[in-house]
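During the first year of the project, the team set up a workflow for recording each protein of interest as an amino acid sequence followed immediately by a discrete structure-token representation. This format lets reviewers and collaborators read both layers of information side by side without switching files. As required by the reporting guidelines, we include two representative entries from the current panel. The first entry is reproduced here exactly as it appears in our internal archive.
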Amino acid sequence: MTDVASVAALYRYPVKSMLGEELAAFECDGDGVIGDREFALLDAGDGRVATAKQPRHWRALLRCRSAGSGHSVRVTLPDGRTVPAGAAAGPLSELLGRQVVVSGARPDGAVVERPDPEDILVRGLDAEIDAPLLEIAQGTGGGRFVDHSPVHLISTATLDALGVDALRYRPNIVVATPPGTPAFVENDWLGRAVTIGGVRLVPTLPTPRCVVPTLEHGDIPRAPEALRGPAQRNRVAVEGFGVLPCAGCYARIEVPGTVRRGDTVRIEPEVTAH
């Protein structure tokens, strides 16, 4: 028997750390959702990837929205202006107070600053906190600016238990799980084959939660509980990263294809061979 669920919502984030778009369907290739995290801002001074994980510098990105794919990606700024992603470096540098460039190709060894999110909650968004460098996309090839593996999933069981809107956790796929499903069920999906329509995934890691879910998202206010909930209820050993607050899971793609809202999600009972 397999666990059966369905796709509740699909999201794509064309520019890393900006608000994205909800879609009725998207295409996946071996490196993830086509058009997802296709672009990112790079700090013109040190070349690091801009992410609201370091809110002291980059949290204003979550006041911007990106939509589209390829040459059609557009960025909507907080003042309502919409500009092509390729022409956004000037206004974004002005917004952020730091010189940035817009890149559509992830540099080799690309890194982000990731201060401890619980320290940020205690000391404040503008505190000068030690920010270790984290290499992104360690679980995927290609050139997209994903945090780790190609796809990020989270269940309605986890979201409902935490009382947090999906948009704060920035998943690609929200899985509608049956009534009675326990929170953090994604921990049990690791290594098991997951089929959605014609796409086959294998969850690889629990998703560590940074400070981003707690920040303002557009007009939506801050929500410290988006980190405190996982910190209190689901600290998990994440291979290579330590014991961290987690919600959701990352996954690699074994068979690419199309995922549609409403598709059946089947989770095999046995762990697959690696």
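The second entry, processed by the same pipeline in the following quarter, appears below.
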Amino acid sequence: MGLLAAAGLDRVGVRPVPRVAVLVTGDELVDEGLPTASRPRDALGPALPGLLAGLGADAAHPTRVGDTVEELTRALRLALDVREPTAQVDLVLVTGASSLGPADHLHKALADLGAELLVDGVACRPGHPQLLARLPGGTPVCGLPGHPFAAVAAVMTLVAPILAVLDGRRPDPVTRCRWDGPRREHDVMLVPVRLIGGTPQPVGPSHSASLVAVAAATHLLVVPPGSDDPQMLRLPTGLVH
């Protein structure tokens, strides 16, 4: 503001911070106490607001949604049906409903709302069952996998560029590097790494259901199949560590 005043600029154009609504599905999820094999903790509800803030967005408190088409359709309508202009959302994220299992109802809910399906699955591991659609009013909806690390991978590769465009920025540049580690034959592989001496070092097993590795990482390594020229995406500072 001081620089603008010193330059004599009395009026400037600004963009509001993108607002994101987060819908978390999964009747099996619990919100407190220790998880069990059949009742995992909801990790994405607590993780996504901070991750999205690090990407320049303002995320409201996540809304839990039951595993039915009716509840998900109603939640999508409510996320968009706001009366105050300052409460309008620019993007809706839905976790855990974009695959093709018996409790995954995002495809049907979007069809009922007349949405246009733009991306339906990506050839990457983890994070394959990610989805992008556009509602009739133009608002994008991103479906994220239910497994926490897979969801973070989808946020970094699908959601982050959308937020950059909404905010009037170019997507963050990628860093190219050498990688002598494993790669998949057909799918892009996403690996949490720390950059040590200019070289990416894996930080641990990157199981799609675990946030341990990504919490210790500084970058997400994007390894195309058969490529010796992978790229690194910088994770938002202070994601967890």
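For the second entry, the following points were noted during internal review. Residues 16 and 167 are 7 Å apart (CA to CA). The two ends are 32 Å apart (CA to CA). Both points are flagged for discussion at the upcoming steering committee meeting.
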